[in-house]
Amino acid sequence: MQSLSQAVAPPTTAARLTPASGGAARRLPVARPARGSRLEGVEMAPPDPILGVSEAFKRDTSGDKLNLGVGAYRTEELQPFVLNVVRKAEERMLAANENKEYLPIEGLAAFRKATVELLLGADSPAIKEGRIACLQSLSGTGSLRIGAAFIAKFMPGAAAYISRPTWGNHKNIFADAGVEWKEYSYFDPETIGLDFGGMVADLQAAPEGSVVVLHGCAHNPTGVDPTPEQWEQIADVCVAKKLLPFFDVAYQGFATGSLDADAFAPRYFAQRGIEFAVAQSYSKNLGLYAERVGAISFVLSDKEAADRVLSQLKRIARAVYSNPPIHGARIVSEVVGSEEMFAEWKGEMEEMSGRIKAVRQVLFDELNKLEPNKDWSFILKQVGMFSFTGLSPAQCDHMTNKWHVYMTKDGRLSLAGLNKAKCKYLADAPSSNSHTLQLRIDVFDAAALHGAGPEGRARAERTAACCGGAVERSIGFPGVHTPVSGSSAPEPPAYRAFVDFKFVRDNVEAVAANCAARLSCADPQRVATLYEEYVAAQQETDRLRAARNENSGAMKGKLEPEARAALIEKGKGIKEELEGLEARLAALDAELQREGQRLPNMTHPDVPIGGEDVSTQLQLVGQKQSFAFEPKDHLQLGEDLDLIDFETGGVVSGAKFYYLRNEAALLELALVNYTMHKVVAAGFTPMMTPDLVRESVFEKCGFQPRAENTQIYSVKDSAMCLTGTAEIPLGGAYMDAILPAEQLPIRMAAFGHCFRTEAGAAGAASKGLYRVHQFSKVEMFVVCTPEQSDALHQQLLELEVGMYAELGLHFQVLDMASHDLGAPAYRKFDIEAWMPGMGRYGEISSASNCTDYQARRLNIRYRPQPPPAAEGDAAAGAPEGKKGGKKKGGPAKAPTQFAHTLNATACAVPRMIVAILENYQQEDGSVVVPEALRLYMMGIDVIRPKKKINKAA
Ligand code: KET
To answer: What does the record give under GO molecular function (predicted)?
Structure first.
């Protein structure tokens, strides 16, 4: 086997200078001419998503509070726990009266020996043959970071693939070390298990020589580990694609309770002779959190390589912290080095993991008692410290703000911080009052939905997670996000939105209720306060400016030198004060913009408040197709009729890409032409729009292309993104325009390509053509006046209904509930067609009225027509007599107002293909082409099986 150190290239300047990517490259703060510190431009970093939770917990004075945030073990009394063996080892160390000299750069020899033995077993050939480069480092985090620095230096260009989701700090660690990170699929919310197919496909698609970060055991945050057989297949892919596995072993002992059993994966890789890196931590299993004890090792194929790699690891560590701390390392060597203490540790390890398992059981029992119809088994199945609930960030916030349950925003609960007594509180209190009942629903409904059959699944899938939770909606984007990761520092707002701050201040309670109804993380109270501060600072600035002018005016005349000197002195004081105030004003303005831009639109009074299940059914059109045979799903039909080819899509582009072949390719064109025909007849201007659009236009349309869980692909080293929907280029088409009212409404319809990362997507509605990275769509977009928008919203819906009815589909029209509205939408009508393959309705279109939300960001205004001036009525058309007043000599000009915008799907091609294939299938396996499309199908009216091309002849 070629050793790693032969394969790696020498360090290059280029490698060192490559900026971190994977979304982590940040714009440098713009340096402002600063009066105070020269570092004025340094933005406040957000609190850490995990450790920040502990800080917030400490500040909470409630007696009910529970810290289920950080993965740190507590006793049944919820107290920190120091292991007995650790106490013993410390006593021995004290008795031995050891010194505090520097350790060698590579650390304490006995510690390093104990650590590799703990990982691979004392009889491991790799240890015996000296093939392991082991460097004692700073716990798991520091070890990962040294490993990442090594990769940046010696494997330039290699990206690190991390699981989606993963421990949040992985992204920071690799990005800060200059290693680009990418994600591989890992979690399937439908099965609440491993998306093994997705994982393997993504790893297979990774470029050769990439790094794969693997959680050794007890995956954080999902608690889902591969089986031994799956590890074997993962090893196969690593070998085939020459990937470098990088194990993160932070929870050895917590998955099964056995230190040995939990080392299965790295031991198996070592046995197969696969070279790998591994970061180990003793924070959790020896409870040495604050001692920072751990190691980075490279298990290699020969000793000579190991020596060279160790020399370079030392070189890196020397420049970072020089040499590691000794105390924790001595504890480890004492414990592992003594047979009796090692045995005792194993016992204590079992005890810790056993207590967490017992808590799982109690929590499971409590929930089962309360909701026996739900499948709570995921709580028992997940291993390690955590339970992954599927809660959205907004729901997590709610848990904390309302019920003092502290948890991370990815929906992770650290069960290591829970005890049996509090399980009841978390599930429901015996009194079952509304407070605790609410709590239970808050915590577990999202997760329970995953296991609650197709309907629940559909609901979970479409629950609008305000901050980009793991579950995203099917068509349409998540709303305005708060980045949930600590890796993103707040940036100066990229553009100015004309948010109606005064409205927010004057209606703060209504705005807050609206945010709650929409599961938005925005903070209207903060916006109101900032606005007040901004206004006050502005008034003070005006006052000072007047004082400055007055002062300089006073200096104009002839003055006694003394009086002049006094005025000069006064002027200086004013100038200084003014400079300070102006800087404050600019900072307040930026903050106000940032906070204001996060606010979602207000909500139409008829919109039902709640989750998707409370959406109102407005219409039911057609009837469910009944089949005298077992209907196939579109994937099967696509396969049998040689229409859809995911295999080639996977090979050429990657998972979730596809080729349409034969009649399916024609069907796409037919659907597009049919739709265009309809919308043009309805008065829409047909358009073809760019597929690449500036990031700023996305933002102005109410999307956050660089947020954590974004669905939007950014283009590296550019401020461009691939369109996720033609709504973006259409919205941008009238940016900064002032339109004459008589030209409104402007109706546009564009054929465009949609690109979606589908971050976090999984489940039944992610199979086949439901959720793909690229698809075609005809999108309608309208710019109009506020008076027109409600009626136009209805018209868009009627147009959709007319087309889908003509295509012979059975569907329901829903007035979507508040949780399901993206930030820009004031009201949204979705159409869901019956999909025989899934046995349920699936979304095929949505039509939103965004009122002035996007227009205030895109700066689309119109000028109302002045009412016809009555003879002699000079003030006509000058409302409130102020700005629009009649100018000297000219006609009266009404002040401009923000327009309203609407968008609606005319045809989302792949989902229409799904609906058509599944609903029009015949017993003989053929599919009839709907009447309305035949004109566009080159004379084909039935799609029949055909001979396929055999690629492996
Ligand atoms: N890897 C993983 C997967 C991990 O969860 C942690 C810590 C570490 C490495 C590093 O731990 P260290 O203490 O540096 O050895 N996780 C918990 C604490 C934290 O975020 O720092 C946690 O997820 O809560």
So the answer is: ATP binding; L-aspartate:2-oxoglutarate aminotransferase activity; pyridoxal phosphate binding; serine-tRNA ligase activity
